[in-house]
Protein 1
Amino acid sequence: MSTLLSVENLSKHYTLSGGLFGAERRLDALTDINLTVEAGETLAIVGESGCGKTTLGRCIIQAQPASAGKVVYRPKAGGEVELSALNKRQIKPWRQDIRMIFQDPMSSLNPNMRVFDIVAEPLRIHKICKGRELEDRVIGTLAKVGIPAEAVGRYPHAFSGGQRQRIGIARALVLDPKLVIADEAVSALDVSIQAQVLNLLEDLKSEFGLTYIFISHDLGVVNYIADRVVVMYLGHVVENAPTEMLFERPRHPYTELLLEALPIADPLRRKGRKAEVRGEIPYLGNRPQGCPFHTRCRYAQDVCRAEKPALRRVNGTAQEAACLFAEELELKGAYEDGPVKVLHEA
Amino acid sequence: MTKPILSIADMSIVFSSPDEADIEAVRQVELTLTPGKTLALVGESGCGKSVTARAVLRLLDKNALIQRGSITFEPKGEAPVDIAELKQDSLPLRAIRGNQISMIFQEPMSSLSPVHTIGDQIDEMMIIHEGLKPKQARERTVALLDQVGIPGARDRANAYPFELSGGLRQRAMIAMALACKPQVLIADEPTTALDVTTQAQILDLLRQLQADFGMAMLFITHDLGVVAEIADEVAVMYLGDVVEQGSVFDVFAAPKHPYTQALMSSIPKMARKADRVRLSPIKGTVPAPKDRPEGCAFTSRCPHAFEPCPTIRPARTDLGNGHHARCHLLTRVPVEEPA
């Protein structure tokens, strides 16, 4: 596999006004992010609200400028482009290759445009084709996602949530992209519709040879769809590992916490948690010293309060974690064979 | 078995609108709540789960009518009341609402008053329902906030909702619902807007409080994982019908209604790559209530639909041990092959 995109030492901070007399404050949304996306893989980025997963997606697609660091795209033909160094005009051709699907299709589809025009707009902007060809391509793409040709003259409000999400997917795919960033693309959907869209995303991936960055907070879905998972906490990557390794034996206590908090749809495997999940995510502007997670970590030692761990390989495997004790800790994964004991029997 | 505290029997709710035909949003629902137990009401958007819950407190909009059925509330040591018969906003109803039966909502930011401190909002409940003096009320409020796990309860009582995080707001809301020691707590998607770790904490808290207060809980959610985590009993709704209900162990172990089965196979299993099975989603989408098939509501999407399904509404079939489902397959008489 070849690397399609790499993010190098990317940081993003916002400056908050301190009011009339207050000093300006700095809010670090992303700190020194390094990751690569291999061609053909599905890379999931997970974490709780405010961890920076959406900001990272937006920095990759250059919807927001990064404060520091690089985003490098390596198209198949060879060579590399540093997207983060391009200006608005220079980046335009590359926007065909990297496309985005948003969480809420109702707010990301223009209510005043017909579905045909919504999907045709990227083709028109990039002057790819027009007339009959454009029509064929739009209708063909919509058919691929399951929107019938009769419906293309309607407005977004006439569709159900699942169909709207399909339209959003068609808009992303009509330019024949290489990389699709799906930001919580199934989170707003009902479970039965969510399953349809997940299957659709998988089918389209194999049909068009896509690469996905799948941003999500739902670890059940991530385990199902992703090849590799990046876990973020307070703007840091705390773990980066192949899906099965991560779910089998996480190497960062935050990953363990997330897996533990995940409700499993089986009452026989009900977890009696008893305050295992501790504390709340600190405010970003008030990030702890040392390891960002130490305030909630049940394994924290004194050294964690002083020293900030870097992301590193664990025992030379493909699993990377930013924890000083990644090798020693015996963290619990999410796969369990057979039922655990019944903890809440009547 | 303990006596039920609240029983909904044969309840139907109809929404009327000036320019469209009436819509029966909830059809002949039967539910019972028992002290100390949790009943989860699960279903996709628009299935009528929130309408059912709101009907219990008579919080429905003006155009909604409980057309038939009863909601019998039987508090300890008091005569039973049919809430469905009470007049909207009458004194007897207001004596129950928030006092003996209370509710927590999905989004605490929009259901707490933004211009009052959380302490004042909780005090108010006790001052109104129990006639406490403000000072006494505040003492209890602080104790409650402490009990729901808000650190620094005495100071936080003076905080406005916007000053709290989502998890703390939800805790404040739970404290408010528990202010008058209700016998029934209705929780409408209380963890949906929260992160997973916060959700786990809130579920833990609700379980703990239920053990302390012994209240019955009606828990509305769309997440089967949360159901498996918290419920004793589960009722699955689809387009206004409770299609299946029973003990959470029975229903998860052997779902009998095709909709329940389909819902379960729509969620990705926590499995290794080798054991991974492709999801089998339910085909199509939920029809609009006005296009609901005359017979079984699930007919248009059901993989097993046969002759009676589109026209005849399946009866509520007893499967033993309190497990019920509405499906023709359960009563189908096997046709004997001609010899």
Note: Chain B has a mean pLDDT of 90.
Protein 2
Amino acid sequence: MDFLTVLQILDSTVRLATPLLLTCLAGLFSERAGIVDIGLEGKLLVAAFMSGAVAYVTGSIWLGLLAGVAASLVFSMIHGLASITFRGDQLISGVALNFLAAGLTVVIGQSWFALGGRTPPLSGHGRFGEWNLPFSDAWSKIPVFGPTYSELISGHTALTYIALIAVPLSWWVLYRTRFGLRLRAVGENPSAVDTAGISVVRLRYMALVIAGVLCGLAGTYLASLAAGFVKDMSAGRGYIALAALIFAKWRPWYALSATLIFGFLEAVGNRYQSISVGDFVIPVQFMQALPYILTVVILAGFIGKAIPPRAGGTPYVKER
Amino acid sequence: MVSTTHEGRQTPAAPIAPSTAPLAIELRGISKAFGPVQANKDICISVRKGTIHGIIGENGAGKSTLMSILYGFYKADSGTVLINGHEVQITDSQAAIAAGIGMVFQHFKLVENFSVLENVVLGAEDGGLLMPSLGKARKLLKQLSDEYELSVDPDALIEDLSVGHQQRVEILKALYRQADILILDEPTGVLTPAEADHLFRILEGLKAQGKTIILITHKLREIMNVTDSVSVMRRGEMTATVSTADTSPEQLAELMVGRKVLLEVDKTPATPGAPILEVEKLTVVDSHGVTRVKGVDLTVRAGEILGIAGVAGNGQTELLEVLGGYQNGTGVIRVNGQELDLTGKASDGQSRRARGIAHVPEDRHDEGLILNFAAWENIVFGYHHDPEYQKNAWIMDNAKIKKIAHEKMERFDTRPLNEKLEAKSFSGGNQQKIVLAREIERNPDLLLIGQPTRGVDIGAIEFIHQQIVALRDQGKAILLVSVELDEIMALSDRIAVMFDGNIMGERLPSETNEQELGMLMAGINNGADATLSEGA
């Protein structure tokens, strides 16, 4: 395995980790505020569909991005309405949104484009362009550093850089701002926030707005990467992001590492379709299943003990 | 604003004579109904600045509702609130805080995995960024802890602090928000006597600085010791407001309950018989590997009540759990001379009951009852295998169980007398009566009873105490665990004090006092116990 292959796998890791990272951070904000968000998958899917559709019609992925974020926000607010305002069960609301997304995208897609639920392929400005960072050509001849810079660090789309910047930003917001303190408090003990004279409902809605925007970015990224929307294209990434969130113990920097691990497994699975161990050939399906296997391992609690936000999953009701 | 308050503190005002001080709080005609239930009916209170005002009343008398109205949790149906002579609209907690009201809830409103500082500033930050607020709070906390006896480590996590320290954080939170009026709801329920004394010293210090304090409690002794004036509530109404100096515990109890109440338990000296329960070298290690009970020896004889005093969490719970058969232990336990299995299959509630042990657990919500089940179902739990409750080999005789349940509830004066109601619809006292009815009516040789009157109102306390004494007088052995020292003193024929998994000493109620027991509860043993258990 030469250096370039390693670089290519890592490059592909970053590409595949981007939507996971954005979705994972979305879940982080939501769950840190005490709202369990199993509907990440659904938000991802509607965002991918709406961005794909609008980007095709308008020819601009940026307008597609707006539409994707808007669709994801609508879903986020439905979740808020059900679980915050009406104090419904957060899991049920989330699962319902996932089903709604899976069904709606195909039905509407078929009615608009009559392509069996997919959107027409995106091209040109309908997709995100790759950003070449300064000097990536000039430095590419420098040994080791050059290729690393031009292959791995440079040449991603805007959303990848946004996702990477979102990590320190999320950390800063959560741990260094008033809003972050209140957000974390509302996921741990909402009555402490309430008695301090702050609205629990408002804080939780704000967390869902952030989650909606981040999922919108992630969904649009998927549509752009695949050059259009395909039925069920989120392929369980919302659930994988949730597993990564648990793996990351609900912390931003850990979320980056966790999603990179998942991205790496997916990259390896894509590149090495079959590996032979002696006479035995590991089937391609196994390689591609790696991220999902890790998800199961994490969710089964094999990786240490992760303590979720203590008020997670319970609607806040003022006590008498 | 904080600095001006602080300057004010450095030159303390001359002590204010309570009778002439201006009114800090005035409530006029406050009424509040929840559906058909009138929780507060035309309540009027005036509290003078710089005084400690007590509010007592039984559970459900409307104390908490009234305070929730004052803190903006509920909107009163009618009535007005005046703070420092001005009418204020307290629409939410933010408005209450702005009006200078601070509240220390019975169940602390703290974020467990936040530091003390973070909890103090939460909701009262200075700007969008956290660091300046935390820095300011750190400085102010140091000042406050020097002025009053309120020292806490600002960087400690709440979950690592003792309950007493957590309560200080709640008080600091209120002071940080510049509260002039501090409301404390049942503040001593979870404290040791020493911690409670410390709290009262803090309150005296705050009072000396001109703060007004409202103390909600059901403990008559606290009212008598620390308040200047006291209001009594009963069934949503304010029955009286008196100066503490002019009243007596007996009078207050009568005002609370509406009839004369026996504060002392009426009982004759015990006539202990043969040992029923013998415990030798009992050691309990919990699931975290912590040794909770460390080689405890004790004996309970027929016809006596052994009271186990101690602050919650010193091994009493685990002791009861092993005796009740749902925790493993090592050592020897004999009941009526026969050894019990402490581990394995024959160590469960079923086998314990078969040996004549009845158990009223400390936590009736989690262990004593299934709240969503009807009273008649709760009354048969644990004994539902008994042949008398079966119709045939397959079907239980529910009609008969209901009838028996009804009779038992009647004998235990359970209200409402309706065995079909869910357990959660009964008040705390009546829930406890359901548990007692189940356990006592089985006529056990040994009754284990934990916190018999926790969250139970005075009228029901009297009844429950009488039932326990009556069982003793029938020659049964009773092991009583309670964190209420008054209750231990009143009921026990012998008192053992537990601290850190050990029995610190045994005393006779007639030969000890609360100070001595308080020292033992804190792990300090000055006097020799001699061989009390033999003498008794």
Note: Residues 3-32 of chain A form the longest helix (30 residues).
Protein 3
Amino acid sequence: MVKIVVESLYFRYPEASDYALRNISFRIVEGESVAILGENGAGKTTLAKNLNGLLKPTEGSVKIDGVDTRNLSVAKIARKIGFVNHNPEHQFFAEKVEDEVRFGLRNFGFSEEAADKTIREVLNVFGLEEYRGKNPFQLSGGEKKRLAIASIMAWRPEALIVDEPTIGMDYAQKLNIRRVLRSIVSEGRCVIVITHDVDFAASICERAIILSRGEVIGDGRLRDLLSDDTLVEKASLRKPFLIELEKETGLTGLEEDFDAISSTLVEVFQKCRS
Amino acid sequence: MSFLRAFKYRRKDTAVHRLDPRSKFLLSTILMAVSIVFTDIRVLLALVFGQIILLSLAESLREWLSSLRGLLFFFAVIFATQLLFGGTLYTGFILSLRLLALSSSMSWFFLSSTPEDIGRAMSVAGLPIELTFSFTMAIRFIPVIYDEFQSIYDTQRSRGLELEKGGFRNRIRNLMPVLIPLLVGTIRRTYEIADAMEVRAFGASPKRTTFKPLRLKSGDYLVCAASAILVALAAYLKLLGIE
């Protein structure tokens, strides 16, 4: 299984005078679910693009299973680490949903028979079987996002990076995306979620890496980090709903029974009262 | 695409940036015309040198230099076509120098003039607002479309697409997964912008007011005089038989 090691990473865009990322070090091992959090412009997407080789470090290194990303092509890294762009329409070009999934499989040399079988399976898992022959641009926002993830998960990468998975999603769509990501985590695959949505992150990820102005200001258990008032304020975040509720009411253990995405306040209070 | 950097406006407070776009446009057009009508190496070198001074005054020399790498491809094409069709290395050099003089004459103008300024200058010249507005929007959206292209390209590379692989035909075919989403996105954006303009009453009144009216200042008259001298000098050189 994949292991990502980031050591003293500095990154600067070609025409920029300042670094977008400074002195970043961490490691992500198999089966981890990690949220990369931080304010706008903190460097979250830049960091993600360094993890999958789209950007190469200016200084320091990013190693995938011990190999420096400078020595690997993006395609080679993509086979192990999938990346889902925040805008799913940036990847759609095929006429049919099934061909959109087929694209990556062809690039990675799957035979047509193996690709057909995989497409059937993956569309089924992601609840997109009925849209198989539909134009991807005609899907709803949530379906597009699911298709984007499905077309990456088709070749079974060992880790998945998802950039802003909940942007523009309604409640039901958010639940669907969460179900999909949770199922990937439960398979023992590594999931890295880049988001502002702390409730969503808390409902999927155990660990958080918090960025501010290109530097890591927190790395640890998501719950612990997002309970820290100073850290939360510094990263322009807010506490997840359940953590805030526990703090305000003095109650404990709410997180074990509920999650901030699907639970309502009424449900939580009813449980507390009983 | 790196040569496009030489045509992207950079906000700076220099004497060149403060000039009226009409006077800059006049000088830029004359420099372009002179670059086209002369093939004499001394004239072309003088044009490039003069424009390097203009670019330095506009504090944009770095942007211009970084765009030269992109122009290398076009220089290579010029040399190749010259050698293939009976030209010499010297004619290839002269044509490349002419291209450099031509692109520089547009470069300092676009680097120091906002798309809005250019649009205003076109309006003042009597062109219809629909045309000037479309022109301004097209220029303003070049960096946006470039960013989108980069994002789509990155996304498809993350799906195993390797544009550099295979022969020429294969590479063109490999571009489709990048160009189709870009085209769809651009058409969608066009409709969205049209709607956004309509809801803000674009075109409702035939008489439009200007928030920042253009006024020629002493520096602009100086540039206009320099342009006239340049035309006279070019005519004189032609009379002397310099090609």
Note: Chain A touches chain B at residues 15, 49, 52, 54, 73-75, 78-79, 82-83, 85, 87, 89-93, 103-104, 107-108, 137, 151-152, 155 (CB under 8 Å).
Protein 4
Amino acid sequence: MSMMLSNWALSPRYVGQRNLIHCTTLFHTLTRWAKDADDKYHDINSMYENMFTPSNDNVSILQDEGKSDYDTTKTSSMQEDISAFNKDLYNFYNIGYAKQIMSASQLENIVKAKGRFVIQSLSTSPYYNLALENYVFKNTPRAKRGPDNCRLLFYINDRCAVIGKNQNLWQEVDLAKLKSKNFELLRRFSGGGTVLHDLGNVNYSYLTSREKFETKFFNKMIIKWLNSLNPELRLDLNERGDIIQDGFKISGSAYKIAGGKAYHHATMLLNADLEQFSGLLEPSLPNNMEWESSGVHSVKSKIKNVGIITPNQFIAVVSERFQKTFKVDGEIPIYYCDEFKSINDEIKDAMNTLQSEQWKYFSGPKFSVKIKDKGLTIKVEKGMIYDCDRNDLIGLEFKGFLENIDSYT
Amino acid sequence: MLRTTRLWTTRMPTVSKLFLRNSSGNALNKNKLPFLYSSQGPQAVRYTSQHEWIAVHQDKTAFVGITKYATDALGDATYVELPEVGTEIAQGESLGSIESVKSASEIYQPADGTVEEINTNLEENPGVVNEDPMGDGWLVKMKLGEGVNVEQVEGLMSLEQYEKTLVHDD
């Protein structure tokens, strides 16, 4: 029987799938190790578990097939084999169907073809996730006729602060505090203000055509969907288009238009560790520095968690409603991505840009800052000091200057 | 400490789109630099499907901006990002972006050329893009590339053709 099982497993029909089991298991082990995702996906996993875990019926089918060399003396080892096999089968179904992670070529194919879909990233790397979003956005074809290629992405990032493309980072965040609390700093490709992410925050990104794009549209849908699910949520839209609950902001939005397409992406605070957020969105030395800059200034808002729903439930509900509401012909599929499999040069390039010092610290708007206790006014363009009362500071990197501010006086 | 997004309350009063089209708000402002740069005015003004305009003068100097239609759709500009002087930018490449209360919107180069000057007035006063997108709100002054004739560049449209595409937008 064990012979038969291994033959069966090695038959051409299954050998590929077994490799897939090992590959995806490996990827999952890695990702889980990296992000402790076990709990996070538990809901969805158990849903598919119920759907796909082979029942006793499957076992009896196997026993039927094995009747010819059925040997009662080997029953216990056979049962072990069967249960091992069933476990493999379960793993295959559970990962293979529920979360088949796209390869680079699969990703490219679906993104470049027309059509609507949902992508959920299983990575929690903010660099990968923003780069993936950028890739999908850039490579989605423009729909000149017929329905537009609506796409919906979900991703959850590890701790990070994300500033808008045209913001002065020094004025928005305190780099030293971010570092001490293990928050990465990213400058995103879209406009808007600064937001904080952690694993209790879900990011959704709705992509559509420039013509169909309307800033408040998708948040209105989300509010409708979630309130109909549970009226206790009492979600509402404020005049800026952000989602609020009892007057507190729970979601912040930013928008980008390029190449005849547009996206609206937003955060959704579900069970974020808000205590860790406090004090991070303030410039360093707030009492000593007076900032003046063009560019975009964040609007400070009181925030809270939605509560009641978990990140997984949020993703499941919004995906499901999106699939229903935006269906044109055929079901809208859900795909899964991670940074090990669903990656290509274009995504890597964008990750490199996002990670680069150049993009983080040496871009953004011009600004000037007055350091009161030192009586200095410093003007900065692209991260470099270009004008100052003290000549020896001109030409210095502002970042280095601020880090060692005491040594310059 | 500055903490509010700057707003320029220069938004158009609500006018029907039909009226906008008929009034040709997307025509070049004849009283401003992009038109007055040369005494005879621009030889050609062309439009892209992404709502940029380009006004080309006899000496191959061209001004680029975005149309009235586009700025109305974008809402109040809060920041204008422009390229560095001296940069050679090919047609279709990014020329910069305009961030408004609603979005960061990419601007594309209508035809090959090298940036000669940027409209530095927009650094402090991005709202000018909304007030006079077809005149004072010009973004970039550039020198067209050798042999570039905007009347033959694929994808560039006349005012009439451009405004026809807007009808189809709805």
Note: The CA atoms of residues 56 and 346 of chain A lie 47 Å apart.
